[in-house]
Design brief:
seven-stranded parallel sheet
Amino acid sequence: MLFLKNILASFLTFFLVITTVIEIGAQVHNGDIINEPFEIGITTGSFIPEITKIEKLQVFQEEIFNGKYFRIIPFYDIPTLTSINKWESEGMLLTDYLPGNAYFAVIDRSFDLTKLKNEIRSVIQIDSKFKLESSLFLKRKSLHDAKTKLIIEFFKGLNAEEAKKDLTRLDIAWNQNRLDGNQLEVTFSGTFIEDLVKVPYIQFISIAPSEPILENENLSYRNATDRSNFLNTGFNGINYNGSGVTIAIGEGGTVGLGLDFKGRNTELVSGTLSSHKLGCMENAGGSGNIDPQNRSHAWGAQILSTNNENYPSLIATYGTRYFNHSYGYGIQGGYSTEARAHDLRIIDYPNHLISYSSGNVGDDPGYAPYNFNGWGNITGAIKQNKNHMVIANLSPNDDILSWGCKGPAYDGRLMPHLTVAGPEGTSYASPKVVGLFAQLEQAYKSNNSGNESPSSLMRAIIFNTADDIGNPGPDFKTGYGRPNGRKALQVIESNQLFSGSLLHGASNNHNITVPTGTQKSKS
């Protein structure tokens, strides 16, 4: 699925309940009466906001920060990109989209909303107490007098350092900046949680995730079921081994001397040796120095040993393209602040990609609404993002392993995305896919004058060339299927691909020639 930057935030979801609507537009618009009920979508379902009189519209001094206030604005029709850019230059920034033609808005006090009365259906005032993520909202009374690690997220377009400086009045202990996603990780007392949610420029507050847990560990098993060996053995003069591409294996511990990565590995963390991390790295790109039979996937790639990723720094400093995380947080649904940060970050860094293991407790009950055995049990809400990958595992004989975690995502989206051999656990399946991506990225650059692919395009190539296994078509056990490096390379070398952007209400037409005799096609 291609990521369309021009439709900035149509994929974002939120944990909000919204109370008051203030009428601002004309009484009739294209035959629709503004006082008629209308729906806005949130993660708990659609809701119909209450409409009040225009004279109730007020902006109080305590709602203003740096000359701006914050609202949700539903439109009669989704505004054009030209209009959005014009309003931004005049002082109204539309940020995140909500189903129902609605946007979160950061508005300069000087901006005159009434001039848009024929386009704006209403203005929704955000009640601050509903900024809490659903799990935190349910637990907030039990957090009284407790020190709790939280992630707070402020609206886009604000000065992060000024917001941080302002928050010091609430006696917050700072743990970690996540300024690339407009987020700060803090320790805060539950006694003052109401003070925190009253801060106008804070958009969301959630409980910080617990420390990640490594997926079950067993012996390494490398294989060629994803046809990576077609790419990296020199057969027919083809040798794409990930050379010129940097990948990162991100989890606790170090890999020591790393003889299978000699000359290619950079250790960026300190601590004890981790056999789990070593196994993940070997599956992604071990060179077979210790055992030639264990050479795997991207054995020419540069590999970073990382933890607690500062993604922008790793991308800018080392040119890192693909990241692997083989850990989980227990079975979790929802769309967490960290999942949202992943989706926001792809806007600024469209070429990077993160792969997560799906988890190894696939027989357990899932998250709501799939709280029955064997489904909806992906290990971590961070994995519920919409622009990266979750990988499940197979036996070496392509048997679907019941204990590998399965989808769907909490909101019904397809997960996992791919499945590949990993009888020792999904921990070792995910880095195999990262290694394959690195191989194919080298091939893409070789066939495109050194230019890199957007990660959305490489995902589309690999998803559409995967071998279908299990139930016909994409499914919640195997995703799009088992990746096939040979077929993906054929698409790249034959240039059987296109990409583009699409404005609201517009259309693009593409002609695709289907060879004579073709029995099945994907689109």
